[in-house]
Amino acid sequence: MPTVRSSETSPPATRLAPEAIAALLAERLPEAVTATTVAHGQLTVDVVPEHLPRAAALCKREKALAMDFFDMMAGVDAGEDGFHVVTRLYSTRHRHAVLLRALAEGGREAPRLPSLTGVYRGANWHEREAYDMYGIVFDGHPGLEPRILTVENFEGWPLRKDFLLTTREIKPWPGEKVPKAKEEPAKADAGGEPADDGPSEEEKAAAKKAKAERAKQKAAEMRAKKRAQREAEAGGAQGSPGEAAPEAGGEGRGGGGDEPGKGEGA
Amino acid sequence: MSETLPHEGGVILPGGPGEAMSVEIRDGGLVTQEMNLNIGPQHPATHGVLRVVIDLDGEVIVRARPVIGYMHRGFEKLAEARDYRQIIALVNRHDWLSAFCNELGVALAVERLMELEVPERAQWIRVLMSEWNRILNHLMFIGSFGLELGAITPVFFSFREREDIQSFLESATGGRLHFTYTRVGGLKEDLPAGFLDASRQMAATMRSRNDEYRQLLLGNEIFQARTKGVGALAPDVAVDYGVTGPTLHATGVAEDVRLSEPYCVYDELDVKVPVRTNGDSYDRFVVLLDRIDASLDLIEQVHEGLPAGPVNRKMPKTVKAPEGATYVRTENPLGQGGYYLVSDGGKTPWRMRMRTPSFSNIQMVPELLEGSLLSDMIAILGSVYFVVGDVDR
Amino acid sequence: MATSVFALEPLWLALLLQALAALLLFLIGAVVVGYLEHKVLAHMQDRLGPMEAIWHGIGQLPADGLKFLQKEDIIPTAADRWVFALAPAVAVVPGVVVIAVLPFGPGLWLTDLDAGIFFALAASGVTVLGTLMAGWSSANKFSLMGGLRGAAQLISYELPLVLAAAAIVIQAGTLSLPGIVEAQHGFTLFGVPMIYGIPHIIGLGLFFVAALAELSRPPFDMPIADSELIAGHMTEYTGMRYAFFMLSEYAGMVILSALATVLFLGGWYPWPGVGLPEGAAGMVLGFVITFAKILVLSAIMVWLRATFPRMREDQLQRLSWSVLIPLGLLNIVLVATAKVWF
Q1: Does one domain contain both A80 and A126?
Q2: Does any CB of chain C come closer than 8 Å to the CB of residue B146?
Q3: Does the pLDDT at position B179 exceed 60?
Q4: Which DSSP state fits C321?
Q5: Average pLDDT over chain C, rounded to an integer
Q6: Contacts of B37 in chain C (CB under 8 A)
């Protein structure tokens, strides 16, 4: 029975250092590569979105790179700029990898990227997932709909930072709070947090009420939005994915993903 | 049948109750109609709630389309609202059969961003736990694969061993399925007294029991007829889809994170990766059995080499990963698990992408299904090892 | 040869007793074999099986029966109601009918037909009609496929079954089941009294394999295939109707084991040449011996279930048409030649 042992397989001599891969990509595709970073031994290459398939194809077909293995694709919320899509490619022969990062065109309103399905078959579901989670449309993809993970009539793009977890709106997650100082009074770093009994009962109740109020308001907003969309659809206008624009982020919550600083000092 | 009959989703069959039957001859043959069949989301062969929509011509599958998402719980979103120690408990749950390997991946990612050195002993114990977890996982699939082919006995044998392993893992971790034993910077606590003896004993038992499983199934003519040459996967297709784990190793590609990018102390151990070349259901199953032996080898090496020392390092009360991004791969029982962690310096990750082996494996499945028989579908789905929670997250 | 104990006057009493006896034998046989399956399977799989109902779970099957009685009888909206409701009965009736010709001891048979063996084989084949009806009327695609698989299986496996039995008929020179037992009692091989099963080992193997397939027992349980077709034709059935299918399966095991006992294992005699005492004692002893043989064969069927995975539909057909049927024909030729020779 054939067995591959680690004692017999040292890293292949053809394995390229991250810097070498970066140099090679920059040399072969100067118009596509905008920046390269090496952090924690991993290479991230920023790619011009329209050239993403070309860059991926180069990584796959160039003999010295031979990145045949489609590892994963991750959308990342990049705040004001829109959304990053990070694709990791890996070579089973040379055992080196690259993370290709592209900023989707169209900002937060209508993010678009060319599809990688023509290069890697494995990109299909990963792109569907990025569409499902962020609303990034991949041009040339055989079919982003129906939504892959969420239900078909789901509204909004759940992994965008402006999409809030509704349950967390009503009831703050207790683990979000910094541990109370009195639990570990001897610790030196407890000094950083003033002896904090948290908000008083009334304050808590008031905050809870306000939160419930806000959630209710939000639910009403969502209902209204749903109705509007249904009407729009009935009118024959299929809302493009980008139209489901962020709106839930208001109310002085800064749009960021950080939960409001509940419990971090009264 | 000239008119179109209700085809999708309905229960009315052509020529079924309440319908007139008509026969049409065209091109010198009987015109047949394909039957649309939903396997799942509630079906015993799909280990949960995977749904595969297939079009059948007789018993031959013409088209297959997996539909996933029935168990989507939004783990990636949840992770953004939790701090790192909570995430460790969270990721135990997407692939419930590889709980320890999952939590290890998160801890490694955070440790890498924080540039933490984990105590030597903790790293060895992490390997030990990973390998026991791997065996637990494989035992499950050895049992269920037999069950799906109609052999009802192996599952009882493999679950007997699972119980034994779970009980002594419980003594260390407090959990039987969701261990939550890893912490950023080490482990929850050291191994309890007597754990290593139990582990040694179980390793010896497992070796003989593994031969028992081999005898129970591999030599059986019907088993061979059902699995050999069924669902043969080509290595280049597998790699293109990002298929990993036993499914990939059965095609002859020895891509294993423990070899190519060793984490913890795998680089100090002699890791064996069993590989076979046909890529069919039979090979996938044999690889599974061989992997148990390989894991036992590693466990024995850990028994010998386990150093003394602390298993934890002093950590600040709130773990904050510095700003940056990293991708950590671990060899999970079902294949390569990956966590792409983007941190903005806060207590919670800015983004945590979970790359799960089952997701990629299931994506590839239509390649194997189309053109095979309905009965073979069971042999294929049972041997492309996946956990639905791991697909849907 | 002994005459049936049921040859009584007046006729209505005889008929009543026969009907009762057939029903009782049917139920007892099914329940005993069902319990055997529970326990043998459990012990082979390193577990205990039913333990709670009375002693070692012997009350489990009656308890299950009660449970089934209480369950709601669901008929799917899209189902063909009449056919759907009738199918379980169609599956059960042949079992009861076949019991009528099976000899369970000297004089312990309900009726002795001249063509008993062919009546038994023909009637037991009707069971599949129930499968087909159930599969078709359920308006469920899984059921439909199960029903079709069942029908295809019957067509291919009725033939080897009949061929194997035909060889014994040639050997014994009679179609009557008690007649075959008596003929076997006097059978000698090179002067040694011998059951037919030893020289007819090919026939015995054929009969047993074909019987398994006919019963849809593992490894030939594709019509049921719980991991693919989710119990096939039984998917939509609940309560008593479902229990009827289970009954017919267990009764089928009894019937085909009993047929194999008569044809190959010497029937109620412990061994050819070894007689039984006259009268009631002989009857009881004969019944016990017959039933013991039936249970051994049934236990082997259970053993196979614990051992083998399921075959595939096309593999099953290939096995029948390219191996079993040629073998059955060859067997007949051999037996006929040997019969003429000696």
Answers
A1: yes
A2: yes
A3: yes
A4: I
A5: 84
A6: 141-142
How many inter-chain contacts (A to B, CB under 8 Å) are there? Answer: 157
B75-392 adopts what CATH topology? Cytochrome-c3 Hydrogenase; chain B (1.10.645)
Which residues of chain B make contact with C304, given a CB cutoff of 8 A? none
pLDDT digits (tens, 9 = 90+) for B318-328: 888 888 889 99
Whole-number Å distance between alpha carbons of B91 and B353:
11
Domain-by-domain residue ranges, chain B? Answer: 2-67, 75-392
The verdict on A162 and A100 lying in the same domain is yes
- Let me know if residue A262 belongs to a domain: no
**Which chain C residue's Cα is nearest to B230?**
C312
In a domain, A230, yes or no: yes
Please give the pLDDT value at position A185. Answer: 42
Amino acid identity for residue B290 in this structure: D
| Dist CA C163 CA C180 (whole Å) | 16
* pLDDT tier at A236, thresholds 50, 70, 90: very low
Secondary structure of residue C248 in the 3-state scheme: helix
CA B175 to CA B321: how far, in whole Å? 27
In a domain, A189, yes or no: no
Nearest residue, CB atoms, C230 vs list B12, B43, B150: B43
Helix or strand or coil: residue B140? helix
B262 contacts chain A (CB < 8 A):
yes
Residue located via tokens 């009969």: C207
Q: Find the CB nearest B363 among A69, A124, A179.
A: A124
pLDDT at res. A233: 59
Which residue range(s) make up the domain with A221?
201-242
C137: nearest CA in chain B? Answer: B17
Asked if the Cβ–Cβ distance from B44 to C309 is below 8 Å, we say no
Cβ atoms of B88 and B82 within 8 Å: the answer is no
Does A243 score more than 50 pLDDT? no
Rounded to two decimals, the ipTM of the complex is 0.82
CB contact under 8 A, C307 and B153: yes
Contact with chain C for residue B374, Cβ under 8 A: yes
Q: Is B233:B251 a contact under the CB 8 Å cutoff?
A: yes
Asked whether the beta carbons of residue C227 and residue B150 sit closer than 8 angstroms, the reply is yes
B314, closest residue in chain A (CA to CA): A187
Q: Which of A241-245, B163-167, C272-276 has the highest mean pLDDT?
A: B163-167
User: Is C309 within 8 Å of B151 when comparing Cβ atoms?
Assistant: yes
The answer to whether residues A96 and A155 belong to one domain is yes
Per-residue confidence (pLDDT) for residue B135, from 0 to 100: 92
**CATH number where A106 lies:** 3.30.460.80
* Average pLDDT of the residues in B29-46: 75
Distances (CA, A) of A96 to B115, B245, B321: 22, 18, 25
pLDDT, tens only, A73-125: 888 888 788 888 999 988 888 888 888 888 888 888 888 889 888 888 888 89
